[in-house]
Amino acid sequence: MLAEERFREIQKYVESHGTVTVQELTDLLNTSESTVRRDLTELHKRGTLIKVHGGATTVGTSVRTRDEELSVRRDRNTEEKQKIAAYAAELIEADDFVYLDAGSSVDLLIDELNEESAVFVTNAIGHAQKLLKKGYEVLLIGGKLKGVTEAIVGAEALESLNRYNFTKGFFGTNGVHPQRGLTTPDSEEALVKKKAMERCAQCFVLADSSKIGQITSITFSDMKESEILTTELKDFSYKKYKNIVEVK
Predict the structure, then answer these.
(1) Among 108, 63, 123, 75, residue whose Cα is nearest residue 229
(2) What SS3 state is found at 2?
(3) Tell me, what DSSP letter sits at residue 200?
(4) If you compute the radius of gyration of the chain from its CA atoms, what whole number of angstroms results?
């Protein structure tokens, strides 16, 4: 197969699948990995797709490798986040033992809380302070404080989480993608999110529309393992997933 023919096949496959791996393209084209990688490099240079580690994604999908300051994220898509937060708060019932992940979307959930008998555990100092001021019983896990997102991470945080069995957990994410799952730019935060999810009977992910279809560096969960709370889906291909809830 000539190079331009491969380029057309690769472009067609990427556009239909969103994100693909080198192995998928190797099988599709019946060629070597080195050839596929060279082809992806060329198509990336042409601007028709984005080459990422281990594969490629469509131009419309961004891949971020760094997190942003909490204060910056808190002021973005606030109206959407507030709708999602209000819906999420109603899911918390009497005597729930709840894990709250660090992040701006979960921070807004705290403002909407009404259930007085729930007990909370969090890895975010800001969350703990807000919960305490509202009169809730709150436990803060131990570990290393990460400056950018104000989240507690590290080996001690993972060990702390091993002690708990949560009825529900509420999580933030930087990206939601069918193939790449739920992602975050930070490897330490990814480990904490993954461990906390393992300790929850039910997991809810708060993701405004800007997170849908996005990919960042580290996957911490499969997309289908949690109930994802978002607003109106702009990409209709996501409507087929029964675990995605569109909050009105």
Answers:
(1) 108
(2) coil
(3) E
(4) 20
Taking alpha carbons only, the member of 12, 14, 7, 19 closest to residue 43 is 7
**Beta-bridge partner residues of 175:** 183
CA-to-CA distance for 136 and 120, rounded, in angstroms? 8
**Contact (Cβ atoms closer than 8 angstroms) between residue 182 and residue 100:** no
Residue 215 burial class via C-beta count within 10 angstroms: exposed 0-12, middle 13-18, buried 19 and up:
buried
What pLDDT, in 10s, does the model give residues 45-78? 888 888 877 888 877 655 555 555 554 455 567 8
3-state secondary structure 70-97: HHHHHCCCHHHHHHHHHHHHCCCCCCCE
* 68: its two tokens: 């942003």
Give the pLDDT confidence of 140-185 residue by residue, as tens digits. Answer: 999 999 887 789 999 999 999 999 999 999 999 999 998 889 999 8
Tell me: domain 3-61, CATH 1.10.10.10, correct? yes
Record the pTM.
Answer: 0.73
Laid out side by side, the sheet with 166-172 consists of: 137-140, 119-122, 97-100, 166-172, 200-206, 227-230, 244-246
Would residue 136 be called left, alpha or beta, if left means φ above 0 and alpha means ψ between -120 and 50 degrees?
beta
| Residue whose entry in the numeric block shows the structure tokens 């239909």 | 16
- 70-246 belongs to which CATH class? alpha beta
User: How many Å apart are CA 211 and CA 245, to the nearest integer?
Assistant: 14
In order of 6, 29, 31, the CA distances from 3 in angstroms are: 5, 11, 11
Other CB atoms within a 10 A radius of the CB of residue 79 amount to 9
Q: 216-234 burial string, b = 16+ CB within 10 Å, else e?
A: bbbbbbebeebebbbbeee
